[in-house]
Amino acid sequence: MATITVIGGTGYAGRNIVREAAARGHDVTSFSRTLPDTPVPAATYLTGSALDGSAVAAVVTSAQVVVVALAPSGDLEDRYEEVVLDIAALAGEAGARLGVVGGAGTLLVGPDGPSLSETPDYPAEYLSYSRAAHGVLRALRSTDPALDWFVLSPAREFGAYAPGEATGRFRVGGDVLLHDDEGRSRISGADLATAFVDEIESPTHRRGRFTVAY
To answer: Which residues, in sequence order, are bridge partners of residue 126?
Structure first.
């Protein structure tokens, strides 16, 4: 079993990953600004800011896998890319694997592009998030080959507004957005967490990005 630290472990993606990893018997620590209303009994919860470098370093250095499940909002709105890359550097120094919950907007709508966030109907309120997620992905692809990382970008319909159910049945793709037979691109929080922890347990996307959808 792995020692896993989830930074942003009480957000939508983070809490699902904490729950799934703990259920599989991993040693899971959640680090976030607040405590959850309903904690996972087997997980450890620590509070702090992702902008506090010393606090982040303390939780990263003790982990075998570091998960970044942060959103570029609030006090991270203008510093998301900086914070994620600082965490990546700390993970590299600690010899830990890095897993990042990416954004659907960075996925391509076809093999030759463009990205989803570059399409005309992409919501303007998500553009800043997509720009930040694009920046992180580009930077990770240029890091030292010794850093073991992966990014999991969810389907287009993903979030607390559409929680869905745990089905355990989904498709795995690469850089191109996946759709079902009805043209929808969606994944539940529970199934994204399943795919995320699957990747931790059986790495198949080293230094790469992938996506999951129904």
So the answer is: none
Q: How far apart are CA 44 and CA 190, in angstroms?
A: 20
pLDDT of 159: 94
The CATH superfamily label for domain 3-213 reads: NAD(P)-binding Rossmann-like Domain (3.40.50.720)
Instruction: Decide: 15 and 36 in contact? Cβ < 8 Å.
Output: yes
Classify 71 as helix, strand or coil: coil
> Per residue in 93-143, pLDDT tens?
999 999 999 999 999 999 999 999 999 999 999 999 999 999 999 999 999
pLDDT of residue 138: 97
Burial group, residue 177, by CB count within 10 angstroms (0-12, 13-18, 19+): buried
Phi, psi of 18 (to 5 degrees): -60, -45
Q: Are strands 171-173 and 208-213 parallel, antiparallel or unpaired?
A: antiparallel
Contact 138/103 with Cβ under 8 angstroms? no
pLDDT at 7: 98
